[in-house]
Amino acid sequence: MTKYPPITYTIYHNPGPATAVLRSLNSTSEMSTSPSLLPLTVLEPPPNTSPAVQSSTSASIEYPQIVLFGDSITQFSTLTLEAYLQTQYIRRADVVNRGFSGFTLPMGFRALQKFLPATTPASTWPKIKVVTVFFGANDACLPGEQQHVDLQEYIDTMKKVIDYPVFRQEDPARTAMIMITTPPVNEHQFERMPSDKFQRRAGITSQYARAARQLAKAKGIHLLDFWSIIMRKVGWTPSMGYECCCDHIPYEVESTSPSTSSFLHIPGCCHASAKFVDSDYELMDFLTDGLHLTKLGYDVLFQELVKLIKHDIPDCAPGNLPFVLPEWREALQQSELCS
Fold this sequence. Notes:
Elements: H1 18-27, E1 65-70, H2 72-75, H3 81-88, E2 94-99, H4 105-115, E3 128-134, H5 151-162, E4 176-180, H6 202-219, E5 222-224, H7 226-233, H8 295-312, H9 328-332, H10 335-338
Parallel strand pairs: 1-2, 1-3, 3-4, 4-5
Helix pairs in contact: 5-6
């Protein structure tokens, strides 16, 4: 029988005095890039009043959306990232999971055109406040593998997603897009294929994360550099370089990387130590199988995502979005909600 880990947080459906206590806990559990800090998943219930409650006099009410768009790492987040966000945005926005296990970015873009077609009238497009785009883990398979996507095709397809009409409406309907880089992979957790090779290599995956990082900067898109966040927690620093000296396709080196003659083995490479340096963490603390995230990995992703939204997109922060329908005391005064 499968054993599930205990839930380590409390959700208060009727926020009261506990709210202040949870705020205090949240203030002491801010995420840090320091590998010595173990993140805590403490979910603060939203206040039971809103800064600006939507009018309920219209015939229908539309909930804005937070759309999580990605591959299996997104699809498998229903008990972690998705649930955490739903708790934070309850009554303010619907959190929609559009994760597709095994999909590459080109496959995801084709799916996007089906579940969110831009050919329908713009008046019917949903009001999407934030969309996260989280692909690359499958695209970065070794050439010859079914899921491999050439790096340039990955970049070109990401541009199509960024420029997708549904996400590029005029303010205030325009969607805030957050590009999330693929997490690192850990070859120490992989099983070798019959050919004695790995399906994914740490050095190649780093190049897809780098491409997303550079494209987000060029296109002015919000970036959550999840690859670098996790790598820093296991002792890596940018001065060590983004590449690896293994026999993989030699992509272009970043300006901050060492010269090609002095590559270092990055965390996750089978030639590097599983415990990369003197760190409190190893990659396997964040990855279940060398690719997918553990609960700790999702904790880091959730906390960094909320921190980014609060800092860079404050209008979309959980506490700043209004309730779609008013708090119950005010609702009692509105006859159309009581009839």
